[in-house]
UniProtKB/TrEMBL annotation:
<dbReference type="InterPro" id="IPR013809">
    <property type="entry name" value="ENTH"/>
</dbReference>
<protein>
    <recommendedName>
        <fullName>ENTH domain-containing protein</fullName>
    </recommendedName>
</protein>
<comment type="similarity">
    <text>Belongs to the epsin family.</text>
</comment>
<feature type="domain" description="ENTH">
    <location>
        <begin position="11"/>
        <end position="143"/>
    </location>
</feature>
<dbReference type="GO" id="GO:0005543">
    <property type="term" value="F:phospholipid binding"/>
</dbReference>
<dbReference type="GO" id="GO:0030125">
    <property type="term" value="C:clathrin vesicle coat"/>
</dbReference>
<dbReference type="Pfam" id="PF01417">
    <property type="entry name" value="ENTH"/>
</dbReference>
<dbReference type="GO" id="GO:0006897">
    <property type="term" value="P:endocytosis"/>
</dbReference>
<dbReference type="InterPro" id="IPR008942">
    <property type="entry name" value="ENTH_VHS"/>
</dbReference>
<dbReference type="GO" id="GO:0005886">
    <property type="term" value="C:plasma membrane"/>
</dbReference>
<keyword id="KW-0963">Cytoplasm</keyword>
<keyword id="KW-0597">Phosphoprotein</keyword>
<keyword id="KW-0677">Repeat</keyword>
<dbReference type="GO" id="GO:0005768">
    <property type="term" value="C:endosome"/>
</dbReference>
<dbReference type="GO" id="GO:0030276">
    <property type="term" value="F:clathrin binding"/>
</dbReference>
């Protein structure tokens, strides 16, 4: 079953909101990154109080994935990076409050079946995000 259909089924079964569906799509296991238009839509939704909490809850859930779902983690970090820079300021605030969750990903490990270290992408992205979150001036400059 193609991943898109499987994701649509899970979305229906779990009755995900529009915002949650967008985050799930942006952080899917597909081998390509989230589109800038999709990330832009999600960034706009972070200004809505209800959608904001749905988006962030789904991102934190994705960041807790591991193993073969390393793309969920990597893309969630990519999306977070984008949202910190272009979404509601509450995104950066919540990330600062939960910075340990991002910091622990600097030890993320996953070697795929071809013996390729896929964890390095996650480790690097988490380090970049932590540096950004800790640098108030740079954070203001990026926004």
């Amino acid at each position: 079953m193609p991943s898109t259909i499987r994701r649509q089924m899970k979305n229906m079964v779990n009755n995900y909101s529009d915002a949650e569906k967008k985050v799930r799509e942006a952080t899917s296991n597909d081998p390509w990154g989230p589109s800038s238009s999709l990330m832009s839509e999600i960034a706009d939704l972070t200004y809505n109080v209800v959608a904001f909490s749905e988006i962030m809850n789904m991102i934190w859930k994705r960041l807790n994935d591991h193993g073969k779902n390393w793309r969920h983690v990597y893309k969630a970090l990519t999306l977070l990076d984008y949202l910190i820079k272009t979404g509601s300021e509450r995104v950066a605030l919540q990330c600062k409050e939960n910075i340990f969750a991002i910091q622990t990903l600097k030890d993320f490990q996953y070697i795929d079946k071809d013996a390729k270290d896929q964890g390095i992408n996650v480790r690097e992205k988490s380090k970049q995000l932590v540096v950004l979150l800790k640098d108030e001036d740079r954070l203001k400059g990026e926004r």
